[in-house]
């Protein structure tokens, strides 16, 4: 469900045009580093892959590159970023080898890209990581970053995403999301592509719609959520990891809706991208506990879906509120779908959660 854009949405008339372009560049560059680390990781044996060091290196490196690109591309803007990582562990005794590895990878990525003539020191890397310590909130502008969303998928060689969004006066106004392993073409119920090209870059700006393009470079294509109105015809995405999804509850929701298709289970915010481009009708997330949901896990994906014509709500049908700081203030569960299915999914979710004893 896409169409070629001419001209791209970052053209004149978009008040966030510079930020939109910078965000796309930032996540694309971070994706290059992450792809290299994942490729190296997959060459290792099974025992070594149980070591989380590679994904930790990629996590930090991704955050450094996003911070650097945003500062280079938007030098006059006050900089505030809400991100997952900080430098505390890297400043401890015994972390110098990892810090050196991160610094080397970051500098190699910058040099290979060729956009900037800079070389970062270890201290520069630590400072760049700590740019993500902001608490966010309802006032001013704050970038929201998940440097690697879907770490288990990253380790397995499956789906992960680099998600970046901009919060302006408490509202998410743009998002960019790099999904290095997500097919650029649509995916089927087994999570595989109808085409050969892999690596998608989704982006959206408020009032300008959502697009997808190849991470390797292509003209942006405008995307839209599906128009399915009968849940019998719908398919749904949910988390690959069991701990992120109450499968008894979601099975009950699917049964109440009459959904016939089996669930498509993949990691990360890539599910938001898949819904935004109409690969499936619904994405829902019902974690086992009423644990805190970090803003960086949903900010980029949510605006990409909403600008593609969809809706993103909590399980009570309320909009997600990203203005409360580093965590969402929401009822149990998050749902992304189109305007036709949302009221039906919320109703079924409420009934299923009551039966499961999740709601009173």
TrEMBL record:
Keyword Metal-binding: yes
Keyword flag Magnesium: yes
Gene3D superfamilies given in the database record: 3.40.190.80, Fructose-1,6-Bisphosphatase, subunit A, domain 1
GO biological process per UniProt: inositol phosphate metabolic process; phosphatidylinositol phosphate biosynthetic process; sulfate assimilation
Top-level taxon: Eukaryota
Record's catalysed reaction(s): adenosine 2',5'-bisphosphate + H2O = AMP + phosphate; 3'-phosphoadenylyl sulfate + H2O = adenosine 5'-phosphosulfate + phosphate; adenosine 3',5'-bisphosphate + H2O = AMP + phosphate
One Pfam family this sequence matches: Inositol_P
Required co-factors: Mg(2+)
Binding-site positions, Mg(2+): 84, 146, 148-149, 297
GO MF annotation, one: 3'(2'),5'-bisphosphate nucleotidase activity
InterPro entries recorded: DPNP, Inositol_monoP_metal-BS, Inositol_monoP_superfamily, Inositol_monophosphatase-like, Inositol_monophosphatase_CS
Alphabetically ordered keywords of this record: Hydrolase, Magnesium, Metal-binding
Family from the record: Belongs to the inositol monophosphatase superfamily.
Known function: Converts adenosine 3'-phosphate 5'-phosphosulfate (PAPS) to adenosine 5'-phosphosulfate (APS) and 3'(2')-phosphoadenosine 5'-phosphate (PAP) to AMP.
Protein's name in the database: 3'(2'),5'-bisphosphate nucleotidase
UniProt organism field: Oryza rufipogon
